[in-house]
Design brief:
The protein is of the alpha/beta class. It folds into three domains: 183 residues, 2-Layer Sandwich (Nucleotidyltransferase, domain 5), CATH 3.30.420.10; 88 residues, DNA polymerase, domain 1 (Orthogonal Bundle); 84 residues, DNA polymerase, domain 1 (Orthogonal Bundle). 48% of the residues lie in helices and 12% in strands. The protein starts with 7 loop residues before the first strand and ends with a strand.
Length: 381
C-alpha cells in the first residue's frame, strides 16, 4: 500500500478550530493522538493534539488554542481510533476532563489477533507495508515553532490509523474476537488514572530488589515523602531526589536535618528537609503504615499454585496465539486469588481461562498432564 497523502493544517486559533470541527462534524470516525512532555514535570504537559478524519488532519497547538473546544468531538457518537491510548486518555483527563465515548485501540486489537509486535511502526510495516520515520519520537514537543520534521512525524502518527484499524477489524472478525475486543476497549475507557499510593511509590525505584530487607520500611517512608512533594511542586520525582539518594538514606539513616539536607542536595528546599528526617524516625519507631510489598512479592505462600495457574495461562494463550501476559499476568492471578479486580473479571476471558483458574482454586478440578498437554481433571466429591 502506498503511503497516505493527506492535507493537514497546524491550528493556532480558537476560531479556526471551531470552523474545522463544524466542517467534519458528521464524520463517523476520527483518529487522535497527543504529544506531551513529562521529562520536567510530575504531570504530563500537553504539547500537541492530532485529530484526523479520513481526508484531513489538524495539528492543534494547545499553547495558543483552548483544547476544551474539542469536548463536543470527544463527546460525540463518532468512534475514536487511537494507538496505545491509555497515556493519551490520561492527558485528556488532566487537560479537559473528557474522553471519547467509543474507542478503537489499534494496540489492543493487535494484541487480540496475536501479532508478534504491537508498536505503531510495526503495524504500519506488517499490515500496510509502510516504513514510518520515528526519528522525531523523542523530540521536545514544547519547542516552538515546530520543525517541519516534527509536524510530519505528528501527522504520520494518525494518518494511517484508519487503514490499520480496518485491517485489524477484518482479522478480529475472522477470529470471532470482535466481542472480546469491544470489552477490552470499554475497559480501557473505564480505566481511571491510577491514583498513586505514596506508600507504594518505592516499588518503582531503580534496583529496589537490592535494598536490604531491614531498610525497606525506611525507604518506603522516604519515597512516600518524595512522591507527595514531587506532586505538590509538579516536578519529576528523580529530579527532586534521585533513587540512589533515597536508598542511601535508607541505609545510613542520618539523624539531623543538616545531615539529611546534605544528602538531599540543593533541589530540596530546606523547609522540606525535616519531612525526610521525620520519615526516617517514624519508620524506625513503627509509627504509620506497615511495609507494602509489590504484588509479585506477596505470593510467596502461593508460589506453587501460581506456577500451575501460570502454566495454564501460557498453554491457553499459546493455543490462541496470544501473548500470555495479555491474557493474564502473574499479578492478575494474584488479584483473582485475593478477590481483587483484574483483567480476569472481563466476560470473554471467563470461558477462555478464568473458569479454569476458579475450578482449580476451589478444589473441584486438578491439573494433569495428558496427551502432551495440561488438562483439567474433575475431582471426586
Amino acid at each position: 500500500m502506498s503511503e497516505r497523502e493527506m492535507p493537514y493544517e497546524l491550528v493556532t486559533t480558537n476560531e479556526r478550530l471551531v470552523e474545522l470541527l463544524a466542517l467534519y462534524a458528521d464524520e463517523e470516525r476520527y483518529a487522535f493522538d497527543t504529544e506531551f512532555d513529562n521529562r520536567r514535570t510530575y504531570y504530563a504537559r500537553l504539547a500537541l493534539v492530532q485529530i484526523a478524519w479520513p481526508s484531513f488532519i489538524m495539528l492543534i497547538d494547545p499553547f495558543s488554542v483552548d483544547v476544551r473546544l474539542l469536548e463536543p468531538l470527544f463527546n460525540s457518537d463518532a468512534t475514536a481510533i487511537a494507538h496505545a491510548s491509555i497515556n493519551d486518555l490520561t492527558v485528556l483527563d488532566q487537560t479537559m476532563g473528557v474522553r471519547p465515548r467509543r474507542l478503537f485501540d489499534t494496540q489492543v486489537a493487535a494484541q487480540l489477533v496475536g501479532l508478534r509486535g504491537t508498536s505503531l511502526a510495526f503495524l504500519a510495516s506488517e499490515l500496510l507495508s509502510l516504513t514510518l520515520d520515528k526519528t522525531e519520537q523523542t523530540s521536545d514537543w514544547t519547542v516552538r515553532p515546530l520543525s517541519a520534521a516534527a509536524e510530519i512525524y505528528a501527522v504520520n502518527d494518525v494518518a494511517h490509523l484508519f487503514d490499520i484499524a480496518d485491517e485489524l477489524f477484518s482479522d478480529l472478525t475472522a477470529l470471532g474476537r470482535v466481542t472480546a475486543f469491544d470489552e477490552e476497549c470499554d475497559a480501557v475507557l473505564a480505566t481511571t488514572a491510577r491514583e498513586t499510593n505514596p506508600q507504594q511509590s518505592w516499588w518503582n525505584l531503580h534496583n529496589r530488589e537490592q535494598i536490604p530487607r531491614d531498610d525497606l520500611l525506611v525507604v518506603q517512608y522516604l519515597a512516600a515523602v518524595r512522591e507527595e512533594l514531587a506532586e505538590m511542586l509538579n516536578i519529576t520525582r528523580r529530579y527532586l531526589v534521585s533513587d540512589e539518594t533515597l536508598i542511601a538514606m535508607g541505609s545510613s539513616r542520618p539523624r539531623s536535618t543538616q545531615a539529611v539536607g546534605r544528602m538531599l542536595g540543593r533541589r530540596v528546599d530546606e523547609s522540606f528537609v525535616g519531612q525526610f528526617l521525620q520519615a526516617i524516625l517514624d519508620a524506625e519507631a513503627g509509627r504509620g503504615p506497615a511495609l507494602e510489598l509489590p504484588g509479585d512479592e506477596r505470593g510467596d505462600d502461593l508460589r506453587a499454585l501460581v506456577s500451575v495457574l501460570q502454566a495454564l495461562v501460557w498453554q491457553t494463550a499459546t493455543t490462541m496465539s496470544l501473548e500470555p501476559s495479555f491474557l493474564a499476568s502473574k499479578n492478575d492471578i494474584l488479584a483473582r486469588l485475593a478477590g481483587r479486580p483484574s483483567k480476569l473479571d472481563r466476560g470473554w476471558r471467563n470461558e477462555v481461562i478464568t473458569a479454569m483458574i476458579d475450578a482449580v482454586t476451589d478444589g473441584t478440578f486438578a491439573v494433569a498432564w495428558r496427551d502432551g498437554a495440561l488438562q483439567l481433571v474433575e475431582l471426586p466429591d
